[in-house]
Design a protein that fits this description.
Helix content: 55-70%
Largest sheet: none
Number of strands: 0
Distance between the termini: 90 Å
Shape: rod-shaped
């Protein structure tokens, strides 16, 4: 077997450490994005919207009413 130089071993270790760090960043970024996604409890249901007075009309209906006047 050929003798490995100390520099190539150190270089390989640096590259492996850099790749592990990048993998950790990707993992934490993925977790943060999952936390940002709205959960079911954050989304208002139709009943909730009707309770606020926003349920039955859509924005396009309001625009049509305004243009007909």
């Amino acid at each position: 077997m050929a003798k490995k130089s100390k520099m190539s071993v150190l270089k390989r270790q640096r590259e492996r450490k850099k790749a592990e760090k990048a993998a950790m960043k990707r993992e934490t970024r993925g977790q943060k994005e999952k936390e940002k996604e709205p959960s079911d409890s954050d989304v208002a249901s139709a009943d909730d919207l009707e309770g606020y007075g926003l349920g039955s009309e859509s924005p396009s209906d309001e625009e049509e009413d305004a243009s007909n006047s």
